[in-house]
Amino acid sequence: MAAFLILSTLAASAPCWAFDLGQSTRCVSIPHQMSVCKDVGYTEMRLPNFLGHSSLEAEVVPRSEDWRPLLQTGCHPQARSFLCSLIAPVCLDTFIQPCRSLCVAVRDSCAPVLACQGHAWPEALDCDRFPAQEDMCLTTLPKPSTDFSKDLPQPGCQGCPAMEEFPSLKMLLDSFCLNDFVVKAKLSRRRLPSDKPEFEVEGHVEFIHQGPLLPYDTQHLLQQWLLINLRCAHTLVRPGRAQLYILTGSIQSDGTIALTHLFRWLKKDVNIAVATRKWKHYKC
């Protein structure tokens, strides 16, 4: 549950913007185990970094891992570049900080995800502390002229949906009728920390009622929902072996999905199997 350590580690290590641009620094290779900032376009970083961390083993590498759960949500396309410019600043003749505009863009997209996990945007990343000039800092990339992803359902923050075991046939069919989509998916949760996301949707998602969902996007959509609603996912999905679920949900007015029920499909539960067969001919 590294996501919940983000604020505490930042608060302890950087209660204020303590880095002095006039202090002496040294260049070191970005360590292989610092996978969060691997393949960012350069191989050497400055120490101390912009968060005041001076020890690779004791501070930089372990605290960089605290950001992995947030980055895996895909909350902003430049979130990794922004965070790595602070955690592992590029080693050039001059200091390159992120621009204020980049900080604001990442904050506006990613702060709601942190809020969903019970945290505020860290004070150490106050955007007013970054330079406003766009010529000597890391700026935002131009947006593409068209963005088809805006028309797709998106994962959003919500309260925990109900988890039902051994539901009645009527409850299942009523839930199928009242929701915009019904899918069968195999959800898994890793027991040990890994470079890969803690939660995963394995294999193909099978549609019982497709509604507005798209076949090529739904697996990724459900996985991102689990990673954004991390606290909820911990209560819903057990660690260890993958488990099959029926998930029902609706599309909100803002285009986000809201899951309403998770039905754990157990081998001895015949009602789920009957409901999925009857649904094709059932009149709501």
Please write out the topology.
Blueprint: H1 6-13, E1 26-29, E2 44-47, H2 56-65, H3 68-72, H4 79-87, E3 97-98, H5 100-116, E4 137-138, E5 154-155, E6 162-164, H6 169-178, E7 181-189, E8 199-209, H7 218-228, H8 230-236, E9 243-251, E10 256-264, H9 270-278
Parallel strand pairs: 3-4, 5-10, 6-10
Antiparallel strand pairs: 1-2, 7-8, 7-9, 9-10
Helix pairs in contact: 6-9
Question: How does this model look, in words?
Answer:
- With 284 residues, the protein is of the alpha/beta class.
- It folds into two domains: 2-138, Frizzled cysteine-rich domain (Orthogonal Bundle); 149-281, OB fold (Dihydrolipoamide Acetyltransferase, E2P) (Beta Barrel), CATH 2.40.50.
- It is built from nine helices and ten strands.
- The strands form three sheets. Strands 5, 6, 7, 8, 9 and 10 form a six-stranded mixed sheet that branches. Strands 1-2 form a two-stranded antiparallel sheet.
- Strand 9 and strand 10 form a beta hairpin.
